[in-house]
Amino acid sequence: MTAEMNLTHAECAERARTISLRSQRVELDLSGAPDPAQRTFRAVSTVTFGATTDETWIDIVADSVIAATLNGTPLDVSTYDGARLVIAGLEAENELRVEADCVYSVTGEGLHRFTDPEDDNTYLYTHFEPTDSRRLYPVFEQPDLKAEFTFVVTAPQDWEILSGQPEVGRTTADGCATVTFAPTPPLSSYITAVAAGPYHRVESTWSVERADGSRQEIPLTVLCRRTMVPHFDADDVLTVTHQGLDFFDRHFGFPYPWGKYDQIFVPEYNIGAMENPGLVTFTEQYLHRGTSTRAQRQGRASTVMHEMAHMWFGDLVTMRWWDGLWLKESFADLMGYHVTSAATQYADGWVRFAADRKQFAYRQDQLPSTHPIVAVIDDVEAAQQNFDGITYAKGAAALKQLMAYVGQEPFFAGSRDYFARHAFGNTEVGDLMECLERASGRDLETWSQAWLETAGISELTPVPEVGADGHLTRLVIEQDARDPLRDDAPVERPHRLVLGLYRLKDEVLTRTRTIELDVTGARTEVPQAVGEAVDLILVNDDDLTYAKVRFDKVSLRHALEHTTTISEPLSRAIVWSSLWNATRDAVLPVGDYVRGALAQLSSETHPALAATVLTTLTTAIEDYTPVADRDAARSDLVRTATTSLAAAESGSDLQIVWARALVRATASCRDGVAAVRGLLDGTAVPEGLRVDQELRWAALAALTAQDDTTEEELAAELAQDATMGGRTAHVRASSGRPGADAKARVWEAMTTDTSLTNDRLRAMVAGFTEPASSHDRQGYAEAYLDSLTSWWSGRTIVMATVLARGLFPRGDLASGQGPEEHEVLVRVEQWLRDHESAPAALRRIVIEEADGLLRALRAQAAA
Ligand SMILES: [Zn+2]
Question: Could you tell me the distance, in angstroms and rounded to a whole number, from the CA of residue 332 to the centre of ligand 1?
Fold first, then answer.
């Protein structure tokens, strides 16, 4: 990025004050897309707007701006700087026409072009959030300048040609169709969308007859590229879509406003999905090439609901500026889990939320870069870095707590009021709170201040006092709540929560009592618990609030030994999550966590929970365990995975989870090599396990990390799976080969080959950083730090972020060394001092990654 790529809040606010956008016509000529030699396409924007200023600028990131006219008079385009074109001589009402040659993207930003190596078909799709619509067409790139957009797209006539609105006109010439789409309702540019290519489509219709006699019918389409059709689970996606529209129609009280609902699964996508109204884009990774577990399908359902919630929250009502990103993301994230749990077959969605999604928030909230949910975002580079665990998961957890606090019905009533008042407009946080206050009749000022405007996590610890008869004589919940951004000043954070009391009987932990209560200050007495006999006290059972939950000594011992005997998966998720938080904080020695998890995991019956705990175990062993103990822990993990795989029920999800775990563990432990070989060559495959292509590639990646494959073997596998997925998996596997020369080759490719696609670069980074070859990477810390600023200026923000995050050096503590003395951290400190004026977004990445390393070293020191 050049400096001009950034856009500040101040200048955009000024532009919004002086410009009134009316409508925008966007004409795109994509007829040359199938020819890889054509780098660019022609884009023409015609914008009508009122102005109270003489001069402004329009955003366009293009190869070149060909011509521009303002009110019929040609403008000087020689001042175009690669990101902005100055528009001078404005009148009260204006028509601006700008013509540019824009570039097909390989990084997933702007208009991405993908050619399928299997059948040579070309596919296009767009992704803009936060500020890449300017890579497709000249535009006022900010969410509060909404326009009625009319898209006109020329592309090969046998292609699907799609935008957010339905097609209303079509002409054909020279093998190409020019399709005109209906004008959009007022819309922010970051959620406009175009897709084109020979996509495969499956159709359905959703309809409703409401109690008031009104009717609505919405055409539904799901699409994917042709070679993915065998893996296209269209029925499941459509079923979930119907269930979601039923739910939102009933609860949001505002008819679906975008006419049609297309959902398209696209390759080489940088994120999970994007809520473009009428044309939602999803990563193709949601179409599972291998056997999918129920948890994977549940994850997809949750994303479908998340994006659907955005049709109202975000698309219909949009944040004024990126500091309100959380407004739409927290709400959509909450709805993703709520509606999946309430309206689909995936009713245990909250287990995933507690075990998995909230870890995203806990992790982020303890970084030096933590921020309140309502964040200050000065520019779009900062916005780009703020699609984080606080904006999504902590915000969702806070709203879940708010739902518990005001009640579910008032929460939805407030939302209905919000949609009705602000439809097609832009809002700030206060607008939502006002609606929720009106609906609930409660003053939310204090709640909002404590939850939305402070940073950090409350720590809740039960302090039991037990009499001679073993029964509680007193129970207090201590809250340690501070704001790390205000010198750790205490915060009064109110929690509505459920306390679970458990007894151990016949080696089984059984919940004998639940107490719902409000925890507000530093100490909350729980008189209801007096007289109870308890073996485990679980604060925040049912997961209503957002907090780090600690255990008293007795509870901790039982948690480490008997968690899997608790019947409710949601309660187990909270125990596992608490144990992991304590390990991350070096409060619980990592060895205790690893031993406790390994001893219990083979009896964890919830596949998604088992998979989550296995992921934490990998981090615990590879990053937090002292290097002297690591090989033993790796062997233990391989042994547990081997026996658990053998014991898993034939054809079950647990069998898949354990097979994947065994393969993954083998990448850093030779003990598993023979078993993984047996899976691969078919000589030792447990009955009912399908060793599909994905598992084969994972196995080959693990064996390559152990230097137990040849290049010929990998090439032979590629020959039998010459798909895009196969190619990426081949790159992933071969990049993991140990040896200084192999690492040097991968480093060279990652850092110099700018033609690499986003997916290929990510595959190389994953292979390069295999734990098994850490000794071959020792020398790269310096090269990493020396390269950071040139990556940032020379690559797009997505690609620079992949490199800056993915290649951050890791390290282990030498004996007697203090964590802060580690040479990587010392060098990073020096880099930060030497680069005080480096872009804030880049510094944020380096600071966060360094903190991750420091946390790992502290855990090693505390082991
Ligand atoms: Zn979202």
Answer: 6
Across 343-354, b (16+ Cβ under 10 Å) vs e yields bbebebbbbbbb
- Residue type for position 586: A
Going by C-beta distance under 8 Å and a sequence separation of 6 or more, which residues neighbour residue 396? 329, 330, 331, 333, 334, 337, 353, 357
Q: How far is the CA of 307 from the centre of ligand 1 (A)?
A: 6
Whose CA is closest to 373, among 332, 334, 324?
A: 324
Q: Taken in order 8, 11, 16, 21, is the CA torsion positive or negative?
A: negative
Q: Is residue 307 among the annotated active site residues?
A: yes
Residues 551-602: tens digit of each pLDDT:
999 999 999 999 999 999 999 999 999 999 999 999 999 999 999 999 999 9
Q: What is the pTM assigned to this prediction? A: 0.95
Cα separations in angstroms, 556 against 538, 578, 586: 10, 10, 14
- Alpha carbon distance 773, 762 (integer Å): 17
Helix or strand (DSSP H, E) at 126? strand 122-127
What does the alpha-carbon distance between residue 679 and residue 674 come to, in Å, rounded to a whole number? 9
C-beta neighbour count of 227 within 10 angstroms: 17
List 148's β-bridge partners, or say none.
Answer: 23
Contact call for residues 43 and 124 (beta carbons, < 8 A): no
Residue labelled with tokens 């709805």 = 335
CA distance linking residue 126 with residue 357, whole number of Å:
27
Distance (angstroms) between ligand 1 centre and the Cα of 537 equals 35
Distance between CA 328 and CA 391 in Å, rounded? 9
- β partners of residue 611: none
Helices in 648-684 by DSSP H: which ranges?
653-666, 673-681
Residues lower than pLDDT 70 in the chain: 1-3
In the beta sheet, which residues pair with residue 29? 42, 154
Q: What are phi and psi of 381, to 5 degrees?
A: -65, -40
Phi, psi of 426 (to 5 degrees): -120, 145
Phi, psi dihedral angles at 22 (to 5 degrees): -105, -70
At 492 the pLDDT is 84
Determine phi and psi for 480, rounding to 5 degrees: -105, 100
Average of per-residue pLDDT values in the chain = 96
Q: Please give the distance, rounded to the nearest whole angstrom, from the Cα atom of residue 504 to the centre of ligand 1.
A: 42
Question: From residue 29, how far is each of 154, 179, 194 by CA, in Å?
Answer: 5, 11, 12
Q: How many helices (H) and strands (E) does the chain have?
A: 27, 30
> What's the rounded Cα separation, in Å, for the pair 671 and 488?
46
The letter for the amino acid at 350 is: W
Residue 140 is encoded by which pair of tokens? 């006022």
> Do 462 and 547 contact (CB within 8 A), yes or no?
no
pLDDT of residue 381: 86
- Own/partner contacts of 327-331, CB < 8 Å, gap of 24 or more, are 327/427, 327/428, 327/429, 327/432, 329/387, 329/391, 329/392, 329/395, 329/396, 330/373, 330/391, 330/392, 330/394, 330/395, 330/396, 330/398, 330/399, 331/395, 331/396, 331/399, 331/415
Give the residue carrying structure tokens 């990774």: 285
* pLDDT for position 3: 43
| Ligand 1: centre distance to CA 331 (Å) | 8
| Rounded distance from Cα 303 to ligand 1 centre (Å) | 8
Q: For residue 443, give the 3-state DSSP assignment.
A: coil
Of 99, 129, 275, 307, the active-site residue reads 307
Query: Quick one: tokens of 548?
Result: 């780090």
- Which pLDDT does position 135 carry in this prediction? 97
